[in-house]
């Protein structure tokens, strides 16, 4: 449907809903929106987060950009989203199990 063919609010809603696909509302309207980013796995996801942090550190340490050119805080907040919090609890449990297993083997 071309924009010049829209004559009603319902037609506009239909038109708009088929064009706004990137941002999905979060569970709460106060939580903003969700943008999906494709990564090849956990390692790739963490590397993206690390790269964003390294970029920020480079800018801060070299004064490569004027502060008004880049919002470092926003980039750092984005980088934090690339680090899996819940999954680290599982990793910690596995680590503790391996330590316990190694100790049991050493005691035998």
Percentage of β-strand residues: 5-15%
Task: Tell how many strands the DSSP assignment holds.
Answer: 2
Could you tell me the radius of gyration in angstroms? 23 Å
Largest sheet geometry: 2 strands, antiparallel
Overall spatial form? flat
How many H/I helical runs?
Answer: 4
Count of structural domains: 2
Give the overall pLDDT as a whole number.
86
H/E topology pattern: HEEHHH
Structural class: mainly alpha
**How would you write the strand order of the largest sheet?**
1-2
Helix content: 55-70%
Question: Which regions have little confidence, pLDDT < 50, spanning 5+ residues?
Answer: none
What does this structure look like?
A hairpin with a 7-residue loop joins β1 (23-25) and β2 (33-35). This protein has two domains: 1-36, no CATH class; 43-108, no CATH class. The longest helix is centred in the last third of the chain and has 23 residues, at 85-107. It is 57% helix and 6% strand. The protein has helices at residues 9-17, 42-62, 72-80, 85-107; strands at 23-25, 33-35. With 108 residues, it is mostly helical. The mean pLDDT is 86.
Question: Helix and strand layout, with pairings?
Answer:
Layout lengths: L8 H9 L5 E3 L7 E3 L6 H21 L9 H9 L4 H23 L1
Antiparallel strand pairs: 1-2
In short:
This protein is 57% helix and 6% strand. The chain has 108 residues and is mainly alpha-helical. Helix 2 packs antiparallel against helix 3.
């Amino acid at each position: 449907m071309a924009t010049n063919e829209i004559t009603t609010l319902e037609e506009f809603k239909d038109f708009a809903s088929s064009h706004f696909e990137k941002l999905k509302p979060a569970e709460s309207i106060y939580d903003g929106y969700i943008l999906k980013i494709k990564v090849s796995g956990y390692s790739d996801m963490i590397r993206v987060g690390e790269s964003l942090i390294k970029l920020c550190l480079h800018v801060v340490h070299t004064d490569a950009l004027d502060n008004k050119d880049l919002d470092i805080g926003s980039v750092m907040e984005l980088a934090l989203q690339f680090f899996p919090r819940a999954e680290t609890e599982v990793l910690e449990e596995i680590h503790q199990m391996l330590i316990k297993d190694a100790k049991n083997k050493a005691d035998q």
